[in-house]
Amino acid sequence: MHESIPDIPTRERSGAFWVKFGGAQAACAVGGLVATGVALQLALDGRGVPAPAWPYGGALLAAFCALIALAARLSRAGGLLLALSEVPVTLACFGALGALGAVAGTLPQHPPAEPSLAAKLGAHAVTTSWPFVLTLLLLLTNLGIALLRRIFPWRAGSARFALGHLGLWLALAAGTFGSGDIERVRLEVREGAATVHGVAPDGTPVEMPFGLRLLDFRLEEYPPALTYLDTENGAMLWQKGDPRLEVVPGASGAWKHLRVEVEEVVPRAVATPEGGYAAGVNPDAPSAARLTVADTVSGKTERGWVVGGAAETLPKSLVVGRVAVTLAKPRPKSFLSQVTLFTPDGASRDATIEVNAPASVAGWRVYQLGYDDKRGPGSDLSTFEAVRDPWLPAVYAGIFLLIAGAAGMILGGSKALFAEKEETR
Amino acid sequence: MNAWSHLPVFAATAGACWAAALALDARGHRAAPWVHAAGVAAVAGFVALLAWSLGRPPLRTLGETRLMYALWLSLAGAVVAARWRMPWVRAYATVTAAAFLGFTAMHPETHDKTLMPALRSAWFVPHVSVYLLAYALLSAASLAGLRGLLRRDEAGAREALRVADNAVVIGFGFLTLGLSFGALWAKEAWGHYWAWDPKETWALLTWLGYLSHLHLRALRRDLVRPALAYLVAAWVVLLLCWFGVNYFPSAETSVHTYAR
Q1: Are residues A350 and A369 in the same domain?
Q2: A35-79, pLDDT tens digit by residue?
Q3: Is residue A247 part of a domain?
Q4: Is the N or the C terminus of chain A less surrounded, counting Cβ atoms within 10 Å?
Q5: In the listed set A330, A362, A379, which residue is the last one of a domain according to the structure?
């Protein structure tokens, strides 16, 4: 049995309700905070917490840190400030965030078409609602004081505690106080053209500190798949999870009572005078396929062409009983943009931007967003999203500390984690 | 010469080593980890050969991805098993890895089947692999919790909790890695590290659930049966996250639903 460490006073654990601060008291305090959040939410007519932009976000974070440092210093005298840093408050915050998170994970998180009490309470924008943000700030306070108390003075176990806890604090604090500084701008460019203008999510035009010229946009598609429609009401009969037959020559498969064989596939199809199809050069033209479809119930067999819909070609389906068999829109296999990026200092460089591979320029990252999906491979338009998040290094520092802490847990196990507890029991 | 044509030889070597390692494990033989490692080396050798012949890391097609799963899982499973003397983790990882490997060898059409653009990333395989390990370890912890709850004697319940606690700590480590890798990948793919996608939200709830267990255990070492019961409850959240999210109203906008 160890002596309790002299510079960390233990609180009086007896007496009136708020003197003995345990699980019940923490739950009451956090419950009160959530209720305050709900009241604020209603009083402000459903408007959530505004995200402050630089310099206000930074100033608020500095003030928050100063308060945490002060609270950590004063908590040495024990009392409620010490209780604020302890595990019961942590657990109560987890409980509240978990409950609010369950709402966020269950209800759609975009404004509903009609105003409702749920929307006013922030149930469709939980993470910017007052109850959520206030609880998150309490958790950051709790974690912040606990961190300072554990690393000043530095002692055995401080490093283990600091890795994960500091990582989480950094990532959460930078993510929260920096959320107002994130800029997302949409850029649209046609092949051969260049732009310095984009559009913010709220529709306001934005002039970018860099220029972008689209040299080439390239799209490759998967082979089209078959789909099945109801001839009486036009409803889609193929459903998620049904077998998907890719239309390549020689492919065969079954869907419900139909057996399908693909005889011939023609890309960029052009109708021929004989009623067939031949491959053309127009990248906007859809594929055509000649199929044999057998109805295993009625025993009937149909043979003929199906064509996907596109601007200059008549769509065509093969009707078997009540079912029309046709080609679904092909899915993109890969798409990329070759661009030239111009920086404010007059320099330029070429880059390839694709999904999962953004380009960095002048403090922004430029992501491949989409293209003219009506035209598919024929698209000469590429859309990009430029994102700027000046707080990202702090968030990443937090994430990397979390990763280091997690590696420590995997290699250290529960014995290392609870070692101090075992010793001081 | 297409490197894929050599896969059956490498896969058969790995499979034979892993089967031998499992048999040796059953007898408690000390050579088991080394025989397993030889199997991992066979997979690593094939991955190196493939990468060399392709001139790029093998992360682009379905077959390449499954191959990388086999490598990651068999490696990480072996590390956890060796560090913690939990042969079952290696057995689980081996069976999963062998399934990936066997399926890839038997389905040559997957070798060149390009993944959808959003999944083509160096983060994809590590992200999913650490989650597979995390879910396995946390599920094991909850099953140990259930077994402990059914024990009448206090010593038996305590021992079950000791075993469960260790699995929770290691599993939670992997869960944190999965969440972090996911955030880093999201930044590369979608421009932001956290988008409150329903699957992300439920993954965070699962993470909070097990983090609460760790804090409860740190706070009250004396509560044994409540802690065991809590582990069973936390598993329900994990299962909701794993299987249930796609059925919630929020899933209509999720990027984690693939059954299309």
Answers
A1: yes
A2: 999 999 999 988 899 999 889 999 999 999 999 999 999 998 888
A3: yes
A4: N
A5: A330
**Domain ends where: A315, A330, A345?**
A330
- A101 touching B (Cβ < 8 Å): yes
Percent helix, strand, coil in chain B (nearest 5)? Answer: 80, 0, 20
Determine whether the interchain pair B249/A88 forms a contact, defined as Cβ–Cβ distance below 8 Å: no
Q: Is B25 on the interface with A (CB under 8 A)?
A: no
The owner of tokens 């080609």 is: A327
- Contact A90/B83, CB-based, under 8 Å? no
What single letter denotes the amino acid at residue A196? Answer: V
Whether B165 has its CB under 8 Å from any CB of chain A: the answer is yes
Q: What percent of chain B has pLDDT over 90?
A: 43
Mean pLDDT of the region A78-101: 93
Q: What is the tens place of the pLDDT at every residue in B137-146?
A: 898 888 888 8
Q: Does residue A108 share a domain with residue A89?
A: yes
Partners of B204 on chain A (C-beta within 8 Å) are 101
Specify if A298 maps to a domain. yes
Q: Is residue A158 part of a domain?
A: yes
Nearest CA in chain A to B186: A356
Q: Cβ of B116 under 8 Å from any chain A Cβ?
A: yes
Substitution target in B192, B197, B200 with the highest count of A β-carbons within 10 Å is B192
A355 and A269 within one domain: no
Residue of A336, A353, A414 for testing the chain B interface, max B β-carbons within 10 Å: A414
Residue range(s) defining the domain that contains residue A257: 223-330
Q: Please tell me if residue B212 touches chain A, with a CB cutoff of 8 Å.
A: yes
Residue B114 half-sphere exposure toward CB, CA atoms < 13 A: 12
Question: DSSP readout, B141-185?
Answer: HHHHHHHHHH--SHHHHHHHHHHHHHHHHHHHHHHHHHHHHHHHH
Per-residue pLDDT band at A424 (split at 50, 70, 90): very low
A303 with A356, same domain: the answer is: no
In this complex, which of B118, B183, B209 lies closest to A399 when CB atoms are compared?
B183
Domain count, chain A: 3
- Which 214-233 residues of chain B touch chain A by CB within 8 A? 214-219, 221
**Per-residue pLDDT at B257:** 59
Q: Compute CA distances B115 → A399, B65, B121, B137, whole Å.
A: 28, 9, 10, 29
CA nearest neighbour of A368 among B115, B194, B255, B117 = B117
In a domain, A3, yes or no: no
**Smallest Cα–Cα separation from A136: which of A102, A90, A178, A85?**
A90
Q: Do A358 and B188 count as a contact with CB atoms less than 8 A apart?
A: yes
How far are the Cα atoms of A85, A161, A169, B178 from residue A394, in angstroms, in the given order?
23, 19, 10, 20
Cβ contact, residue pair B173, A418, below 8 Å: no
Both tokens assigned to B215? 């804090």
Q: What is the pLDDT of residue A205?
A: 96
Position A13 confidence tier, pLDDT thresholds 50, 70, 90: very low
CATH of the domain at A344: 2.60.98.10
Q: What is the pLDDT of residue A420?
A: 57
Instruction: Give me the percent of chain A exceeding a pLDDT of 70.
Output: 93
Given a cut of 50, is residue A237 above it in pLDDT?
yes
Our CA dihedral for A97, A99, A100, A102, rounded to 10 degrees, sits at 120
Class of domain B126-255: mainly alpha
Do A41 and A160 share a domain, yes or no? Answer: yes
Asked if A60 is an interface residue toward chain B (Cβ–Cβ < 8 A), one would say no
Distance from CA of A127 to the nearest CA of B (A): 8
Q: Is the same domain home to A373 and A311?
A: no
Pick the range with the lowest mean pLDDT from A374-388, B54-68, B93-107, B146-160.
B54-68
Q: Which residues does residue B61 pair with via DSSP β-bridges, in sequence order?
A: B114
